[in-house]
């Protein structure tokens, strides 16, 4: 729910140890899925984190990415997106829980959405890889079971952190 939270790696390691312990060293286990059918869709990832509270580290990371991508100019962001009514700055976007931020027709916002999806996916798979490897260094890591439809920008960052990609 908040992959950029500073304690997330520690939390994932604790979960991996609890879930893997019964199977560690079992000759019948091949490996582990890190999750099941995560929704790696551009717009879903974007709106999910925009609706969160300002205290959510991943939302803070998203707003920081938008600021960087648009050189801290709200006008640049507004050329690519239709922001929620009454929101006219990145600071207000961070504070808002109104998820009605849409891609603007004819804009280039999909580029930053692709980058965002890749950032979240890489953070997730990096942390899952570390946690599972620590809990059971000999097992295969399958990543999460991908749905039929997924964004390739979320799958490319997975490659260095898994032994098998499962769909």
Short recap of the structure:
This protein has helices at residues 8-20, 42-50, 57-69, 74-80, 90-95, 109-135, 152-155, and strands at 31-36, 81-82, 102-103, 140-145. With 167 residues, it is mainly α.
Largest sheet: 2 strands, parallel
Spans where pLDDT lies below 50 across 5 or more residues: none
What is the radius of gyration? 18 Å
Globally, the shape reads elongated
How do the strands of the widest beta sheet line up side by side? 1-4
Mean pLDDT: 92
| Number of strand elements | 4
Give the H and E element order: HEHHHEHEHEH
Discrete helix count: 7
Structural class: mainly alpha
- Helical fraction equals 40-55%
- How much of the polypeptide forms β-strand, as a percent range? 5-15%
**First-last Cα distance:** 22 Å
List keywords for this structure.
10% strand; mainly alpha; single chain; two-stranded antiparallel ribbon; elongated; two-stranded parallel ribbon; 47% helix; 167 residues; 4 strands
What does the model show?
The chain has seven helices and four strands. It is mainly alpha-helical and 167 residues long.
Which helices and strands occur, and which strands form pairs?
Elements lengths: L7 H13 L10 E6 L5 H9 L6 H13 L4 H7 E2 L7 H6 L6 E2 L5 H27 L4 E6 L6 H4 L12
Helix pairs in contact: 1-6, 2-6
């Amino acid at each position: 729910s908040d992959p950029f939270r500073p304690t997330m790696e520690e939390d994932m390691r604790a979960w991996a140890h609890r879930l893997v312990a019964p199977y560690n060293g079992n000759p019948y286990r091949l490996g582990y899925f890190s999750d099941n059918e995560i929704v790696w869709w551009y717009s879903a990832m974007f709106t999910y984190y925009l609706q969160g509270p300002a205290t959510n580290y991943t939302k803070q990371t998203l707003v920081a990415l938008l600021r960087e991508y648009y050189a801290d100019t709200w006008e640049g962001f507004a050329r690519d997106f239709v922001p929620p009514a009454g929101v006219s700055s990145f600071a207000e976007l961070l504070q808002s829980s109104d998820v009605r931020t849409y891609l603007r027709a004819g804009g280039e916002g999909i580029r930053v959405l692709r980058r965002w999806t890749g950032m979240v996916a890489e953070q997730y798979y990096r942390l899952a890889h570390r946690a599972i490897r620590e809990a059971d260094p000999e097992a295969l890591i399958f990543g999460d079971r991908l749905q039929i439809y997924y964004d390739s920008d979320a799958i490319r960052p997975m490659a260095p952190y898994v032994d098998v990609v499962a769909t």
